[in-house]
Specification:
Length: 276
């Protein structure tokens, strides 16, 4: 425990010390998607947002505030568990923190992403940032996948309040069973946010399965890459995959770019956005 905390802080300190050099190096690649990620990173880190962005972020945070007072119990029996958790506690533990929501929003906006997939809807907090980012994009579509029915219902109401129903859908059920349903939709994604089921083999499977469902150049984001040894090992395998051009390790998130139009492969960068 102490060893992993020291390792975390050492790694973050090193990344912070090298950050200016790494950002310059990223820009020298002259890859549009990579440049957009750098811009999204700097805008988020240095709070360079428009009035409109700030208003949308506030809307997402108002939703979080509402959830944090909700004492309704959510059943996890879909996972074979008798556990029931109140909404406020799920929100505290599982929802993306504001800075990561803002970064997600900026990544989508700066890349003009049209089709976005999320694995791990939960209460729809990160989904709210995603839908707000897609608001002005014609014919955009957001698909989110979640196993717990009560969470799908709560998130669905929130999503309906942001964008028309035609622009988003939640696929309910355990991922083993619902991938087939996702494939039926025949959508190719510009950005995938993988934030559900943080285990090694499933994470690698989702990556491999989704590779053929991407509209290139595409971004994939893996949450909690340092959450366990297994997730660290999944991240090492994913970022070294033969189809990955660039990877960015933010300690919490791992981001990869897949783009067949360039020959660059497995070029790795480390940045630090936030401790949260
Ligand atoms: C960390 S939460 C997602 C948080 C959300 N993206 C946010 O930031 O607001 C992960 C979610 O994935 C769901 N999940 C985990 N494993 C799953 C599986 N095998 N099938 C379906 N859903 C799963 C959980 O029920 C949980 O709601």
């Amino acid at each position: 425990m102490i060893y992993s905390k020291i390792k975390k802080h050492l790694s973050i300190t090193l990344n912070r010390l090298n950050q200016t050099r790494v950002l310059k190096l990223m820009n020298t690649q002259q890859h549009p998607t990579l440049n957009n990620i750098v811009d999204a990173f700097l805008e988020t880190k240095h709070v360079l947002h428009t009035e409109k962005d700030l208003q949308l972020f506030q809307d997402c945070e108002n939703y979080r505030t509402q959830l944090l007072t909700n004492k309704n119990l959510i059943s996890y029996d879909v996972f074979g568990s008798s556990l029931k958790n109140p909404v406020y506690s799920i929100c505290e533990k599982a929802s993306s923190k504001p800075i990561w929501g803002q970064f997600l929003y900026k990544l989508i906006k700066n890349n003009n992403s049209k089709n976005v997939l999320e694995m791990g809807t939960n209460l729809g907090v990160s989904g709210s940032y995603i839908l707000n980012a897609l608001k002005d994009t014609a014919n955009s579509h957001f698909i989110s996948m979640e196993g717990v029915p009560d969470l799908c219902n709560i998130a669905s109401q929130q999503f309906n309040s942001i964008n028309p129903k035609t622009q988003h859908s939640i696929i309910q059920g355990l991922y083993d069973k619902t991938f087939a349903e996702l494939y039926k939709k025949k959508i190719k994604f510009n950005l995938c946010f993988i934030d559900g089921n943080h285990q090694k083999d499933p994470t690698i499977d989702y990556f491999q399965n989704l590779k053929s469902r991407l509209d290139l150049p595409a971004i994939m984001i893996f949450d909690d890459i340092n959450w366990s040894n297994d997730m660290q090992s999944a991240w090492e395998i994913i970022k070294s995959d033969q189809d990955v051009c660039y990877s960015i390790d933010l300690f919490k998130w791992g981001i990869i770019i897949i783009d067949n139009s360039v020959s660059d492969r497995n070029i790795h960068f480390n940045l630090h956005l936030s401790y949260s």
